[in-house]
Amino acid sequence: MNNLIFKSRDELIQINPEDIVYFQADGNYSKMMLTSRKVQLLTMNLSKVQLKLDEQLGLQSDMFERVGRDLIIRKAFIYSIQTLRKKLILSVPNSDKFFELEVSKEALKKLKETQEGTPIKILNEVQLRDLQTRKIYQLHLGHNRFGRKTNSIECEHPIDNGDSKISRLHFDIEVSCQISERKYEFKLYDLNSANGTFLSLERISPETPQPINIGVKIKAGNTDFQLEFADLDKTEIF
Length: 238
Known about the structure:
5-stranded antiparallel β-sheet, 2 helices, disordered C terminus
């Protein structure tokens, strides 16, 4: 993914979009919070920041969401939306970093409704297939978390195939795309699962993202999955 560039008369800032947790309005300026907890002041208002995201990221700007008048957040980092307490908590995956923000009740209600809707798919092109049941899970830009289906679903893609060795939060496939070249990039994370996530019979570290490609086979519990391009005429989406 290309770096975002913010420039003014006196400075230039380049940053990987994946390192951004949120932007927050600060008068005529904006504060950019990074996953490292570093705060960078940008000499532009939040509307100008949104314009920069749209201009430089294209369709990938969908990884960010405007929340009310004062915030733009990374959607994949949403941990908790608490409308009554007017609190929004963001969490960096695979870390102990949390960010608690005070947000209006109306803005949080709208964000909650958005998150409860169907995620935007990536042009119906990429999917993960359960090789035992043949079910497929269509992927979207950003984080795609997989885990065993329970009464309290904690992930975007609950797995309901009877495999008790799959954790409630097991693994995550992060998808990014260079829109101009239609080039996808994928990273696999183990979400501290009890029985591990495997590539080529090797267990991956939960602390380290693992680059993967189309065709790769992923093992979680007793289930094998394959990352592939979709053939919508032959598969059923769940």
